[in-house]
Amino acid sequence: MADNIYISYPPPLTPEQEEYLVQTVKNWTIEHALTVRPSTAIVPKDINPNNVLATNAPVTLFPSPFPKACFEQARSLQKVYNELYATIASDEEWLEDILQELIKVDDFLANLWKIHLSVKEEGYVQDLSLGMFRSDYMLHTPGDSPPSLKQVEFNTISSSFGGLAVKVAKLHTHLATYPSVKRPLAYPSHPLFAHSDQTNSPSPSITTIGHPPPNDAVITLTASLAAAHEAYGPSKSRPQLPTCVIFLVQDDERNVFDQYALSSELWNQHKVPSFRLATSKILALTTIPSKDENPNRPLIYTPPSSPATQYEISVVYFRALYAPAEYDAPTSWAARHHIERSAAVKCPSILLHLSGSKKIQQVLTSLPPDTDHLKNFLPHYPESTLNSLRTTFAPQYSLSSPDPNIEPEGVRLALSPDSAANHVLKPQREGGGNNIYRDKIPSYLQSIPTSQWKQYVLMELIHPPTNAKNTVLRSDGQVVGGNVISELGIFGGCLYRSGNGSKKPEILHNSEGGYLLRTKGKDSDEGGVAAGFSSLDSIILYEDA
Amino acid sequence: MADNIYISYPPPLTPEQEEYLVQTVKNWTIEHALTVRPSTAIVPKDINPNNVLATNAPVTLFPSPFPKACFEQARSLQKVYNELYATIASDEEWLEDILQELIKVDDFLANLWKIHLSVKEEGYVQDLSLGMFRSDYMLHTPGDSPPSLKQVEFNTISSSFGGLAVKVAKLHTHLATYPSVKRPLAYPSHPLFAHSDQTNSPSPSITTIGHPPPNDAVITLTASLAAAHEAYGPSKSRPQLPTCVIFLVQDDERNVFDQYALSSELWNQHKVPSFRLATSKILALTTIPSKDENPNRPLIYTPPSSPATQYEISVVYFRALYAPAEYDAPTSWAARHHIERSAAVKCPSILLHLSGSKKIQQVLTSLPPDTDHLKNFLPHYPESTLNSLRTTFAPQYSLSSPDPNIEPEGVRLALSPDSAANHVLKPQREGGGNNIYRDKIPSYLQSIPTSQWKQYVLMELIHPPTNAKNTVLRSDGQVVGGNVISELGIFGGCLYRSGNGSKKPEILHNSEGGYLLRTKGKDSDEGGVAAGFSSLDSIILYEDA
C-alpha cells in the first residue's frame, strides 16, 4: 500500500497549473522568509558583493504522503529518545568504554574527548546541559511488508531546519486550502487532498485531512532554549550583568533565516534576548574571569557595536562546530574548550555531542544475548515502549570483535556478495569519507588493511518506497521532478542535570514537537539538503482503511 | 527648531556599530519581507532567469525626526481629504468644467474621459466607488517660521508602499528598542531615543517616545477593501459564483511584497480571497456576460490554473494603469473600458482617477475672491477645519486665464527672475515631462509657444528643512548617507455611493490610518523611490517644549 499511494501522486499539472503553482511558491517563500542566501553557484560574488540577495529555500511543490501510524510512532518515541541520549551523555564511563577504540584513530573525537577531560580535571561549573534534538528516519518497505520506521541518525548538535520546516508545512497547507479546501487554486484534485471526490478515488479506502499537520518545531525548540535560559538563573557576575542566549554560527552561513525563526520567537514569546556570534569571534568577543576574580566562570559577551554593554551568556546554542572541517583555524579547539569550561549551559555539552556519534547508534542496536543497553539506560520504561523503539533500529554491525578468534558477524555479512548487496559500509569517523554501497563492499574491504576495518560499520540498507515522486523548486528557480527518497525528522528538546553522584540525569524539561521532511532525488545514494535536487518538504498523512 | 533637531542626527556610528546595524537591517528586511525583486541593474537577467531573487527595499538606517504637531494635523485632515475627493469624483459637471481645456491637449486624460462618457451612455451598473488614498506632504520651513505641512500630491490611484511602510516602522522600532529601550544594541545614544540621558541632551526641551509610532496602513487599507467587497453583496451571476477581489498589477512588477502584505491581510483578517491579474491578461481572463445573458454586467474571472472554477469580481484594486506609459498595448484602453463598464467596484473609478489630476489640486488652492471650491464641496465642515486644510496648500498658479485681456498671476510670477526663483513649473499632463525649476523657468517659457503655456502650472517651492540627514541601505547593499528631503504620506480609505440625484456622495466608509515616509538624497530636485538614493523611511516624532 505504501507504494500504491504514489501511483497517481503528485497529480499531473497542466502548463497553466504549473505556472500558477510555481509563481505562487516563488512569492510565498519570499513573503514568509522561507529563504536562504544564494550560493555563489547561483549568484557570483561580484554580482552580490554586499550579500543582500535572498532566494527561496529549495522546496517541494507538494507535500509527500506519509503513513500516519509511522508518524505517530516517531512522535511517541521522541521523548524516550531524548531521555536516552541525555542518559548516555550523563554516563561518562560507558561513553569512554564505547568510544575509546575510535578515539585512537579519529582526531576529531579525540580532541573533543580531550577537552572534556581537561574541563573535568579543572572541575565543571555547570551541571545543566541542553539537547535540541532531531531524530531522522526513513520509511522501510521491504517486499510486501507494511511500512516501518528506521532511524538514520539521532542529531545531538546543530539540529537544523526547524525554522524553515514550519514554513514549508504552512506553504503546503496554503496551497491545499486557498481560497477554500473544496477548491484550492494551486492543487488539482487528488484523493490525498480533502476536497477530492471520494467516490471517484482510485484509493477509496484512504483517509486524510488533506493538508500537512501543524508543525510546532519552532515552539518546541524555542521553549527548550527558554527553559535553559531560565534554569541558568541570575547573573553570576559581580556586579550582575543582563543575561542572553548566544547563537553560535558559521562565518559564511547561508541558512540564516532558519536560525532567525528561532531567535525571533525566543524574543517575541519569551522575551529572551539572543545574539549571533560567529565561531571565528568566540575568543575575541567572549571572556571568562580568572579564578580569583570569579570562580563561577561566567561567560561574558562584549557586543562589538556596544562594548560598554556587556552580557552574561546563559546558553550557547551551537549552530556550528559540529563537523571536523569547521575546526580549521589555529584557535578553533581553544575556542571550543573556552566555551566548555564556562558556566554557560551548552547546547550541547561535549559529552552530548559525542553521544551523537554513529558508533553510539550502532552499539545501541545490539540486541540480547549481547548487552541490552536500552534496558540499562531506560529501566523505568515498559518493555513495549523499548520494543517500539527497537523496531526503529536498522541492524548495524561492527567489523571488530573483542575476541580476535571469532569472526565478527559484520565481517561475514560484508565479505559475502549476497549479503553485502543488502548493506552499506559507513566510516565511523565523523565527517570522514563516503559510504560504500552493496556489491562494492567486499572488494573495497579487501583493498584496505584489515587493521582499518574497525573504522567502519556495516548497516543493513533501508528500502524506502520505490514509487515516491515529487517536484522541486530549486533555489535557482529551476523546477525538477522525479523519483524521490524522503527522510522524516522529529524535533525534541531536553534540559537535564548530570552528576549528583548518579549516572542517571535529572530531567528538567523534556518535549517533543515539530517535524522536518527532507526529500531528495533518488539517483544519488548520498545527498544533503545542499545538493542540487534535495529540498525541504512536508507531509500529508494517510491511513489505509 | 525644525532645523536644530538635525544638528546631531543621526548619531555618528563607529565602524563596528555601522557593521552591526547594517547587518541587522540586511537580515531583518529579508526575515520580514521588507523586500523587492531586484532590478536588472542590480542582478542581470541571465543571472536570475527565473526571477527568484529578492533583496531589501531601499531603507533608511534611522527614522527621520518629524514634528508631532504636523503629523497630527496631517492625520486629522485625512478623512476630510477623503471626503473632498469622493465629493469631487461625484460631481461630473464640475470635473468636466475644470478638465475640459486640458483634455484637448492631453491624450491620457482625454481617453479616460472618453471611457467615462461611453459607460455613462451605456449606463453605469455600479454606483459604489472605492478610494484608497495617500496624501503626500513636505515640511515647509521658510526662514525662522515653525514647520508647516504642504501637500505635494493627493493620490487617488495605486497609492503604494503601505505594506512596506508598516514594516519600516517595525524595523526602526526594533532597532531602537532591542533588547531594551534603555540600551539598544543597534543605535547609539541620542536625545531623540527614549533611552537617552536627558540631562546630557543638547536639546533638553525635546520630548519623544524614542521610536516610530505604530503604523496601521495595512489594517486601514485592507479594511476598506473588505468594506467594498462586503458592500458589493452577493453574486449577480446565475447560478451564483464565489466573489473575489482582483489586484490589478503590472506585468513586470518588482514591488510585489508591498502588495502581498495587503492581500495576505485581506485573507487572514477578513477571509476575502484575492487574485493577482496582470494588465496584459485582463481581456483574456475576465468576461462580462452579454446584456441578454445578464444585464447586471458581473465581471467574471477565470483562473488560468483552474478554468472550471470561475469567480465574480467584487472589487478591482488598481495597482497599475495609473500612468500613460502603461497603456502601451493595442488593447490597453479597451481593457480599462471593459473594467469600467462592469459591475465590479473600482478602486478607483475613472472619475476618481481623474480627480487626482494635478489640475484639480491646483484649482482647489484658489482662494476667495475666486470661487471657494472647498466651502462648496464641504459645506458641513466648520471653517476652522477648512482653514487647517487650506494651510496645507502650496500656492499654485495657472498660466492661462479665462479673460485673454488679463495677464494671469502665474505668468507674471513665472517670467520675473526674482519670483521664478521661488517656484517650480510643472506640466499638467499626467506622466509627461520633467519639472522646470527656479531660474530656468523664464527662459524655458520663452522657448515654447505661448499657446502651450496652459499645459503648465506654476507652484511655489516648498522649503524643507535644510539640515536633515540620514543614511540609506540601498537594494544593492551599498550604504550611502547625506542630506535628505522627506515626503510624508498619510493613508486613507473611502467607500462611497455616487448618483442618487445628488452631486454629493453617500459616504459608506471613511477611514484614516498609517503613514509612509519617503526620503531621498537632496541633490536631485526630482526623484521617486525607484531612483538610486531614495528610500523608505519612518518617523520619530518630537515636540518642542
Automatic annotation (TrEMBL), chains A, B:
**Catalytic activity reported:** gamma-L-glutamyl-L-cysteine + glycine + ATP = glutathione + ADP + phosphate + H(+)
Task: Please list the residues that bind Mg(2+).
Answer: 430
Q: Where does substrate bind?
A: 259, 518
What does the record note about the cofactor?
Answer: Binds 1 Mg(2+) ion per subunit.
Q: Broadest EC class?
A: ligase
The EC number(s) given in the record are 6.3.2.3
Q: Spell out the GO cellular component terms annotated for this protein, sorted alphabetically and separated by semicolons.
A: cytosol
Start and end residues of each Glutathione synthase substrate-binding domain = 243-355
Annotated GO molecular function terms are: ATP binding; glutathione binding; glutathione synthase activity; magnesium ion binding
Q: What cofactors does the UniProt entry give for this protein?
A: Mg(2+)
**Keyword annotations:** ATP-binding, Glutathione biosynthesis, Ligase, Magnesium, Metal-binding, Nucleotide-binding
Give me the residues that bind ATP, please: 358, 426-435, 437, 459-462, 487, 520, 526
Question: Which pathway does this polypeptide act in?
Answer: Sulfur metabolism; glutathione biosynthesis; glutathione from L-cysteine and L-glutamate: step 2/2
What PANTHER family does its record include?
Answer: GLUTATHIONE SYNTHETASE
Protein family (similarity comment): Belongs to the eukaryotic GSH synthase family.
Q: What's this protein's name?
A: Glutathione synthetase
Q: Which organism is it from?
A: Exophiala bonariae
